[in-house]
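Continuing from the previous page of notes. For each protein in this section, the sequence appears first, followed by its structure tokens. Read the first protein now.
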Amino acid sequence: MQTADSESVLRRLDFAASIAREAGQHALQYFQRDDLAVDRKDDSSPVTVADREAEQLLRGRIEHDFPEDAILGEEFGERSGSSGYRWILDPIDGTKSFISGVPLFGTLVGVEFEGDAIIGAIEIPALNERVYAAVGHGASYVCREAPPKSARVADQVKLSDGLLLTSEFAGWESRGALEALAELQSQAWFTRTWGDCYGYLLVATGRAVAMVDPVMSVWDAAALLPVLQEAGGKFTDWQGRPTIHGGEGIGAAPGVLDQVLAVTRKWC
């Protein structure tokens, strides 16, 4: 299989971090606006003009600078490419937080090469935090205007040492796995629903030890695997496979992952 050359990867990493920040700032113009209209998709999930415009901005930048790359976005589907690279976009991850005026939403930009997730950028515009990574090149964390520093997961070895996160209860209920969540909560020091990509940023920067979601789309997951891996952690499905295509996700410090998998594997 062809491998991505380092120069091409680093160019895309810098670009991913830049356009994620730009799209996040664009979405922020609509945040906490009283006149923001909210539509419902066929699956009843919310979508706004901010989601659509932010994705159009991302797609336009990619199409201009990397015209041979494929693009997959949550709002506007897929465009084919010939380079082996595919950008995977979630313009507002956490739209439910966004429309509720809660600042825990983000912009996700992921890049695959020949089907492998190699680049991820998580931008949290309302909090002015971001983390970005490319496989083999480390993960960087930026808080407000401070210089970048290495992103590292926590070094706790037990779930009882730290914070467990999930996005919401509905996915656990629809999967019939509320008992799994209860079991994980009983093992954790404490649990919060600081969800969506913000929770995975907390894991990647050592402030939480695990985040578990029972339902995920590929655009929810694509940026997360490179970030967690390069921060010294793990991103897997509920069976422990390192994939963004599992329809579910676990982000964890390495010492905690086996504890989480001991619960989730019973529900696969």
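Done with the first. The second protein uses the same format. Note its length before scrolling.
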Amino acid sequence: MPNVDLKPLHTDEVKDVEQGKKPKQLWGAYEVAAEGHDLQYFKDLLAQHEVDMREEAAAAEAAAEEKAAKAEKKKSAKKSKATVSDDDTEMMDDDADPEAEEEGAKKPKSTKKRKKDAESDGEGGKVGLGR
């Protein structure tokens, strides 16, 4: 809106305005204007808002640092567990029977057949070519 179209707003006029279809933020601004505060009130309000925003940003930054520290701690804990597990298996290798180890190391095959398995079973050929 150009500055030429703006007109001064008097507190008497603001008190008589009905809400109608005005957005909540605009209606809130009308209510504050109707209270008739001086300029210092608004300067203090802006200064307080700036302080609140800084505190909020500092709290968010501290939370992010704390989250990163927890993630790093988890990561280091997993690494230490992995190195301990590796050491344990090396010790077991010396004492354990090699055949028993192979049986324990084998993972059970999945029961779900893959396309590759189906082709090797003799069902081969490409399905869905429409020939």
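What the second structure shows: The mean pLDDT is 75. Residues 39-97 form one domain. We return to this in next week's lecture.
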